[in-house]
Prior knowledge:
The protein has six helices and eight strands, in the order αααβαββββββααβ. A hairpin with a 2-residue loop joins β5 and β6. α1 packs antiparallel against α3. By secondary structure, it is of the alpha+beta class. The two termini are 21 Å apart.
Amino acid sequence: xKSNIKKGKITMIITIxxxxxxxxxxxxxxFKIVNETDITSIENMREAxxxxxxxxxxxxxxxxxxxxxxxxxxxxxxxxxKQSNEETEKLVDEELKQVNMTMGKTDVxxxxxxxxxxxxxxxxIGRISSDSLLLIVNALKSAGAEAISINEERIINxxxxxxxNNSFIKVNGxxxxxxxxxxxxxxxxxLESILVGNGGPVDxxxxxxxxxxxxKSNNIKILKYNKDIKIKYIQ
Length: 235
């Protein structure tokens, strides 16, 4: 789309240049006619001939003036078109920026919380599973989180969070290990309350003895999703 806009700008510049050249040519022809006029011949013309010549001059002047006005109108039209294209390009850039942010293809930062889950060497408590991470992620989404990551892996709608042989967890196809650090950008109070409130996922994990810590920050940084987004079935 940007390529089409650039081509349009080049076309407008060329067209304006041609129009200005045409205007210069018309004016130079007019000056040439004046310079080539023989004053002595005019003085010797009869009155009728002078009137005829004057009428011809008037006609030529009106024709030149009309073409001059047409060129001015075209230049003004091109200026408006250029301004319109610049506004369109700016709007397209802004929409593209918003789409990239929504799809997780842009690094972002803002206020939010950081949830750190550390595993204990205790068989009764057990390891932290992908289900626990999913519960926290889903709770954060429902609380209005605008961006989420786990161990710097950006979470998007197509992200996978899965256990591999009850040994380790994969996020976006990448192996991650404890401690698990979940970052979320959004309203700090909403995000924290949904996790630690009665029945919240962090509240439940703490009840069984798992080590979970929540900290607030006004400068949470979340990296972009750095893989290709492949669509197979949507048409």
